[in-house]
Amino acid sequence: MPTTNNKINFPLWKFLTQPIFSSKTPAILNPKQFWYFHQIEYLERCWLNISRSEGNFHN
Fold first, then answer.
1. Per-residue model confidence as pLDDT tens digits over 28-54
2. Calpha distance 34→25 (Å, rounded)
3. Over residues 9-29, mean pLDDT
4. Residue 28 burial (C-beta neighbours within 10 Å; 0-12, 13-18, 19+)
């Protein structure tokens, strides 16, 4: 039987240590919703890094 490698790197520590009573960032208690927003933040950080690196080459 073939096995599939479905390894998901859920940011458990980030989920557990999120600020609960913060007015800036409300706590997300649903793990699926937290995972969704975490992926969006990850993509935004990647795009920001790409744009910074391309900005260095185009003086």
1. 999 999 999 999 999 999 998 887 777
2. 12
3. 90
4. middle
Fill in the DSSP letter of residue 17: T
pLDDT value of residue 33:
96
Distances (CA, A) of 53 to 41, 43, 44, 58, 59: 18, 15, 14, 9, 11
The reply to whether the predicted model has a pTM over 0.85 is: no
Residue 18 and residue 27: Cα distance in Å, rounded?
A: 6
Rounded CA gap, 37 and 30, in Å?
Answer: 11
**Structure-token match 């990647």, residue found:** 46
